[in-house]
Amino acid sequence: MTELDNDLRSRQHARELARNAKKAQATLATFSQQQIDAIVKNVAHEAAHHAEALAKMAAEETGFGNWQDKVLKNRFASLRVYGTIKEVKTVGIIHEDTAQKVMDVAVPLGVICALVPSTNPTSTIFYKTLIALKAGNAIIFSPHPGARECSWKAIDIVRRAAEAAGAPAGCVSGVTELTLEATSELMHCKEVSLILATGGEGMVRAAYASGTPTISGGPGNGPAFIERSADIRQAVSDIITSKTFDNGVICASEQSIIVERAIYDETLRELKAQGAWLMSAGEADSIAALLLRPGGTINPKTVGKTAADLSRMAGFSVPAGTKVLIAEQTEVSRHNPYSREKLCPVLGLYVEQDWQSACRRVVELLTNEGLGHTLVIHTRNQEVIRQFSLEKPVNRILINTPAALGGIGATTNLAPALTLGCGAVGGGSSSDNVGPMNLLNIRKVGYGVRSIEELRSPSASHAEPQPAPMVPANDSRQSILEDTRFRSLAANNGPTADDRFSAAAPEEIGEQNVERLIRQALARLND
């Protein structure tokens, strides 16, 4: 028998996984809420049990970040995610309104193809398994080749835990023949209902191009604005905590600092006191040359490295205890890595005259990269928060918190998630912190409550109640109905007087006079 080439063998393997998952999901779709919840609970607790071992394994294999912070991510992706979703109803009738006579019925999507990044491999597998199974779906993982061993181990742990709690075999699986052909085959398989994509920009684009419905994260480029009313010491602490967490590999982490000129000196002193190294122009150029590859993509050799590692790679040294490297900047462009995403403890620093100028700089940075993702503001000024919240093109605005941890819902009450949607503005299909409700279809059920005769000839007894006009509280703006020009005929004494606003009561419109009124209106148009 002729042996298949590696690419063909990997494609066949992907097809078999998809077929098995489809059969398993058909069985899973018949499970009760109690059965689903028991499976999810067992997976979460078993994943948390292996949090430290898998963290060490991932750090050693990928060379990204540090294992201590990966332990926290693994526990977050298992126990914290589980704690948030465990009471959510995802099976059968999930909402019923007897007064309005409507119901919502949860319908699983089917089989999900999940792409796994090398930056957060094990935690992503825990998180995606939980939200997929909670919604009654099967899931097939396609790990990053640079994190294959730790990913396979994590997949095996959640698979065994799911099956031990009663899930049908095939509900959780992963590609073992890691080729681009295998991933492409999965994304194009007719058995796959959705691609849940977390990873590099190229792979996310391929997912959307496959024609299979896709939910994705996107590149971050989160600015951190320190406004003059902020607690500067705490703001700097939050930024450095975030940017050094797992050495900056979380996409929600800060990528640049924007500070008002009035507090620049104090902010700079605090940055230096807390372990930031302000690079010289030459040092900044050396780091910039490392951060991006010739094609403009992130250099993987810099991802998840410490400040000391990066400075050595660039040919200079920094004092012991240096946590982040900072470069003052004035330019924003695709060619300037300090104004783009950097998955390592490096930050650009922009100084602006006031918060309005900072607003414009934030938009400029996000337009350059990171539309729809995240920004963080450090301030005590509620008006600044309001203006940023209303105007900025992101789907997560974080206030006075480390962005890496706030964006994923660890230090905020946002939904805990490791896939952060960027919405239409960011080229995605969802703006949510993705959870189980994003992995369901909602079947709408509505009872008939009015007849076609009532629609054609609505009677007074069946008239729909009209909503009251919305008047904002404490609105000082004058209503047009209060304008004296429209209340006093004296204001319209001239030859162009307009009688539309006279006090005469409007003539009632009925079937007997509607034709006459139409003719009068047409005659006015012809005058």
Quick take:
With 527 residues, this protein is of the alpha/beta class. The protein is built from 18 helices and 15 strands. The protein is globular and about 70 Å long.
Helix/strand layout:
Elements: H1 6-28, H2 33-49, H3 51-62, H4 67-85, E1 92-97, E2 102-108, E3 111-115, H5 121-134, E4 138-142, H6 148-164, E5 172-174, H7 180-188, E6 192-197, H8 201-209, E7 214-216, E8 222-226, H9 232-244, E9 254-260, H10 264-273, E10 276-278, H11 281-291, H12 307-314, E11 324-328, E12 346-352, H13 355-368, E13 372-378, H14 382-391, E14 394-399, H15 403-407, E15 440-446, H16 452-456, H17 484-487, H18 514-526
Parallel strand pairs: 3-4, 3-6, 4-5, 6-7, 8-9, 8-13, 9-12, 10-11, 11-12, 13-14
Antiparallel strand pairs: 1-2, 2-15
Helix pairs in contact: 1-7, 2-4, 2-5, 2-6, 3-4, 3-6, 4-5, 5-6, 9-10, 11-12
